[in-house]
Write a structure and sequence with these properties.
Strand content: 15-25%
CATH topology of one domain: Rossmann fold
Number of strands: 35
Structural class: alpha/beta
Strand order of the largest sheet: 5-4-17-16-18-19-20
Shape: globular
């Protein structure tokens, strides 16, 4: 069935011979005795000889010498049960800051207001190490926590690298989060230093966040010092005129080179020394803090950026993201392979969805990452970026955050141009991708080309048996270096084990519902905890979205399946329509027909309702499970934490719909 589908993109001879992945396979294949061409051979070696693969990767990217005879991997695949590269010492910031010639561009910062800032590698090194010296002067020690309440700006990257350089642990949240939601995350860590900006840009406005910073200080009693970044230019010296209380330091002072001493050198730390803490969504409870280590993240990022994304020092990497989302961390990691990065502060669609393409053109971006939702907005706006902008520097695109439907994949190939658009599925949990693209493998519409190197990805049925060509639970059967070291405040790894290992003992179950095709590509159908299960037949919400969102009048859709008290199953579809469109009988019929034709008759919903909007997490994921719970009668305040929702008022809309439904019964 899948073999009849024509690839949207195929690798060139250059890709097959000279890409980073091809060169690594040639090298590793000769050393370890497996074929030097063909991605499947490389992947199978990487997951069958796990320790050998990661050790080879370590040497390929020139990481510090390892103790002679020390194994790359010891122990069992279980929380706290395995250890990578015991006895090795390194520092992610040291590797990043050691890349790039002094006068080469490291970071470009842009805003929707049109401002632009550039940091050369020399400036990045000096500012990051000066910030490290400031932290040391303030008494910050390895293992202490430094947190950032910041937009996606160059200063955020500098603060992170300076923190990592002294072995302190970083964590960040974007400034669109309210102080209470930020405190739910940072408060767990008991941070000693807060780095905060005076505000951010959004939708043509400058959003003042100094009052929010003051409120956050009250909610974080362990914070001893606040470093204030004057991003909007409104923050005068904090000790004079801002509402920030306590011991404050201006960003300019925090990154000034010490006059009496030289800049410090990054501190070598153990492989699994805590680098940062990232968070689960927190929509239904206190966010879980996931701790990642220096070595695991550095190895994963070198693999992802240097091999799968084929980045080098010639590239400029731009992923539209926020410091709240793991893609910010991944964007920052492109510096580790010598590429420059672009940080953008602003709405992706202000003043129109063309704004980001203007940046891609003007800044000569070579790799541009986004969400399927943004691509849908571009298509809905009638844009054809390949015709309207000079994208001659652009050589790769990528999309993540949700499944990329086939129609968008086809549209992008036509409207943007003949560059690869890699769909990616990963997770905050591992700070990387499980299923990704490869410069040596074709791209098929609606599919993710390959499981990532070193990721023993499989699809299992309920009995724990591998399945092919049909839907199964996504599992990872071998450890990855970037799996969390632990959850914060989780003695005995109880929450960690319950999150990933409670279904298949000793095997990571991620919670995604996937199909592995005959050719080895991966199709993501949605989260297994929001699986539609009608009359015993499981269906993926992503398949319905892929059908519905091809209809021009439909901007976005949300489908849920809710078990009812009488034992019946209710499967409504909610649609957001374009301006001035109304859900009449003719449109309902077209929606039903599209689902029947592009998915199956079983996927056709019981009812279709027009709604003002679909609620998402602040990183753009549809809130399928919380909406399901609300429609089953769970109070809004218990179904989801409003602070984590992009438009909390939408949750009340679904509560009203439930009330109306049962008032008619």
């Amino acid at each position: 069935m899948t073999d009849a589908v024509v690839p949207l993109w195929s690798p060139s001879e250059r890709d097959l011979r000279e890409s980073g992945l091809a060169r690594f396979q040639e090298h590793a294949g000769r050393r370890h005795g497996f074929p030097t061409t063909g991605y499947d051979a490389l992947w199978r070696w990487s997951v069958s000889e796990t320790a050998a693969f990661w050790a080879e990767l370590w040497d390929w990217f020139g990481l510090p010498d390892r103790p002679a005879g020390a194994p790359a991997l010891e122990g069992e695949h279980a929380p706290g049960g395995h250890h990578w590269f015991a006895g090795t010492r390194l520092n992610l910031a040291a590797h990043v800051l050691g890349r790039g010639s002094d006068e080469a561009v490291a970071i470009v910062g842009t805003t929707e207001a049109g401002t632009r800032k550039v940091l050369m590698h020399k400036e990045l090194r000096e500012q990051a190490l000066a910030f490290a010296a400031t932290l040391t002067r303030l008494g910050i020690q390895p293992g202490d926590r430094v947190v950032g309440y910041l937009p996606n700006i160059p200063e955020s990257v500098v603060a992170f690298l300076g923190t990592a350089a002294i072995g302190a642990t970083w964590s960040s949240v974007g400034q669109d989060y309210q102080p209470s939601a930020v405190a739910d995350r940072f408060g767990q860590l008991e941070p000693r230093v807060l780095v905060a900006a005076d505000g951010y840009h959004w939708g043509g406005r400058q959003v003042d966040r100094l009052p929010a910073v003051a409120e956050l200080q009250d909610l974080l009693p362990t914070v001893e010092h606040t470093v204030v970044v004057s991003h909007l230019g409104t923050a005068a010296p904090p000790q004079i005129s801002t509402p920030i209380r306590g011991r404050t330091v201006s960003w300019a002072d925090a990154t000034a080179q010490p006059a009496d001493v030289g800049l410090p050198q990054p501190l070598d730390v153990p492989f699994d020394h805590p680098l940062w803490v990232v968070y689960s969504s927190g929509t239904t409870g206190l966010p879980k803090g996931m701790v990642h280590g220096h070595g695991g993240i550095l190895l994963e990022m070198l693999k992802l950026q240097g091999l799968h994304h084929d980045l080098t020092e010639r590239d400029r990497f731009f992923w539209y993201t926020s410091p709240s989302w793991i893609m910010w961390n991944i964007q920052t990691s492109a510096l580790a392979v010598g590429a420059s990065i672009l940080c953008h502060d602003g709405s992706p669609v202000h003043p129109t969805p063309a704004a980001l393409w203007q940046i891609v053109q003007d800044e000569r971006v070579t790799f541009f990452g986004m969400s399927p939702g943004y691509l849908q907005a571009v298509e809905n706006a009638g844009l054809r970026p390949g015709d309207e902008f000079d994208l001659s520097a652009l050589r790769s695109l990528a999309s993540t955050g949700s499944a990329l439907p086939p129609h968008l994949h086809h549209w992008a190939a036509d409207a943007i141009g003949p560059v690869p658009l890699w769909s990616v599925s990963g997770g905050t949990d591992v700070g990387s991708g499980f299923a990704v693209g490869s410069p040596t493998v074709p791209i098929w519409p609606g599919e993710i080309s390959v499981p990532a190197l070193g990721v023993a990805l499989d699809a299992w049925d309920d009995a724990g048996r591998p399945v092919r060509g049909e839907v199964g639970e996504m599992v990872v059967t071998q450890p990855m270096p970037s799996m969390p070291l632990r959850f914060w405040n989780d003695p005995g790894h109880e929450r960690y084990r319950d999150s990933y290992y409670n279904v298949y003992p000793g095997v990571w179950r991620h919670g995604d519902w996937i199909t592995i095709t005959e050719r080895g590509s991966v199709i993501v159908h949605g989260r297994s905890d929001s699986t539609l299960n009608r009359n015993g037949v499981r269906m993926g919400s992503a398949d319905i979205y892929a059908a519905v969102e091809t209809i021009p009048e439909v901007v976005e859709a949300l489908v849920i399946g809710a078990e009812q008290e009488d034992g019946s199953y209710w499967m409504p579809l909610f649609v957001v329509l374009a301006d001035d469109q109304t859900l009449d009988e003719a449109l309902v019929d077209r929606i039903r027909a599209a689902i029947r034709e592009k998915a199956s008759p079983r996927h056709v919903p019981d009812e279709i309702h027009q709604v003002r909007g679909v609620p998402h997490t602040r990183t753009g994921k549809k809130l399928e499970v919380p909406v399901k719970r609300i429609l089953q009668g769970v109070p809004v305040t218990r179904a989801a934490n409003p602070d984590t929702v992009d438009d909390p008022a939408l949750l009340d809309l679904f509560a009203d719909l439930r009330a109306q439904r049962y008032s008619r019964c």
